[in-house]
């Protein structure tokens, strides 16, 4: 039985393509690095704008609550049934002044921490400039930020330690203020009203529900509930209980601020990374790639197209991650995991860019080789039976798939299909030629082999060195009707059908 299908590699061509692809990747590297650095700098600027807005919002909120504390105290005292006399007003004034000093220290603390966060962001941008000219600049920069975050967190702890001394002083002064009161019911009601009003202010100006430890929240809630019942059960509540509520509320706020400042440092670092990666991916959706045949003519290469949508899927994942982060609800641990994911996605994005370049060049090469082969064979008396084209893939006539041509030689009643396919060999995609005899000439396997060798020599006249002819995995026996029909070869999914047929995959 004759062998109807033969295959060969494009040895010298594939070797030359590898060199061309490596050269283009090196040329693209500088462009991609510049794009990465530009994206990171833009993201860092955006982060700085966010920091300014957050700082302004926190400062405004803090001042607003300061201004309303006096009114809040009086409302709370009246709700408990207390009589508000001049002494009570003076006591409330002293409490408000103490809290004003307290909030001034909080604002000072927040300024210091945000200054440190801004400095971290600037250091990140500067570090990006110093990193050597290798891809994955963002990943390398993030590794640097990890150590910077540790430094910022230490600064937060140091500043909070200083702030703690101010808090301790405030707690002592408030305790004295309460202890100096008479033990009569009205005085207890007045003190209870002050403490409850102060607690509500703390809960509104500081996100204790999110950032304070759970056990502290539960302890404060228990104390507050006891004091709220003072009007109905005055014997169940003492000035000490009021003192304890105030003390626990201040400590709870301090711990919430500590955790929030750590969270803000991590958040703005992560936001810079996510925004930078998204910009990088969007900028690389289209790459300017020089033709291997005419380097003076750069061509636009659609990264998502040549990676069969994988690049776009990664971009969508980054958009989704950004959307989750923008809600400002992620925990510290979730943001750390997000940073690890960003590093992975950056590496994937880089690999996909290189894959797109590789496949785009291979396609360009298949077209050029096809033209050379056709010209060589036409000069030897062959003629085109139908228009050549691309095999169908995800779409009809898909440029990412192989090229084909159907030729005939009327004088000898021969017909031949030539397909140039991309094939993965040892993890690397290369081009391969498949020959398929469409005619029904009766000849021995040796005669067909000799005829293919003659055709091979004709092709090599085009300047392309071919490897040894051999049978494909299917063995080469039998006709593949699809290969003799240009219309079927162009149809969507034709490349996959052909591959399964040749490799006998059922």
Written description of the protein model:
This protein folds into two domains: 149 residues, TATA-Binding Protein, CATH 3.30.310; 218 residues, no CATH class. Helices cover 67% and strands 9% of the residues. Strand 2 and strand 3 form a beta hairpin.
Chart the SSEs and their pairings.
Layout: E1 5-9, H1 11-79, H2 86-130, H3 137-179, H4 185-205, H5 208-211, H6 214-228, H7 239-283, E2 286-290, E3 298-302, H8 303-306, H9 310-326, H10 332-379, E4 383-384, E5 389-390, E6 403-409, E7 414-425, E8 428-437, H11 445-460, H12 486-490, H13 494-502
Antiparallel strand pairs: 1-8, 2-3, 4-6, 5-6, 6-7, 7-8
Report helical residue fraction.
Answer: 55-70%
Low-confidence sequence ranges: 1-9
Radius of gyration from the CA trace?
A: 38 Å
Separation, N- and C-terminal Cα atoms = 23 Å
The backbone outline, from C-alpha atoms, is rod-shaped
DSSP E strands, number:
8
What does the average pLDDT come to?
79
Order of helices and strands: EHHHHHHHEEHHHEEEEEHHH
Query: So how many helices?
Result: 13
How large is the share of residues in beta strands?
5-15%
Q: Sheet with the most strands?
A: 6 strands, antiparallel
Category by helix and strand content: alpha+beta
Tell me the count of domains: 2
